[in-house]
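Reviewer 2 asked us to include a model.

Predict the structure of this chain.
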Amino acid sequence: MTWLRGRPRRMWSLAAVVVVVVALGLCVPPLYRSISERSERQAAASMAVNLGLDLTDDDTILYSEVFSSFPDSSAYLIVESSSAARAEELRRASGLTLCEPRNSYEFKQTPTEYLPDSQAALTYCASRVTGHGFLSAVTTSVPESNARAYIWVIQM
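Predicted model (structure tokens):
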């Protein structure tokens, strides 16, 4: 009966290893996804700020995507401002001065949950092209609501 003495200890050790592997399998992927989304958001925001986007604490980046390529990288951001006045201030302070109203715009990169309301007034704006790149944005304004800007950042 001496062969039974080591067996329970081995089974508990094996069970502990299985529990650790399962726990890591459940925790690591969401943690990695969270970290990579945060770093992509930071990369997109940094690229935009370097080209003149004037983000403040009143602005929230709802969505971002970075397109890395050589030599021209780009980013797409959806920024929600706390008010229409703040959105207008963001537009002006960021140098998005070449503006024109639009009846429609093709939001190819936009996830469906962030698409603008069909009643929203759309305005397309662009910054002047510099040696570093430029910004372009479609802004929406719905009275009594937060305003959104759909911003393309193009580095050259």
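Helices lie at 6-50, 84-93. DSSP finds two helices and six strands in the chain. We have added this to the supplementary material.
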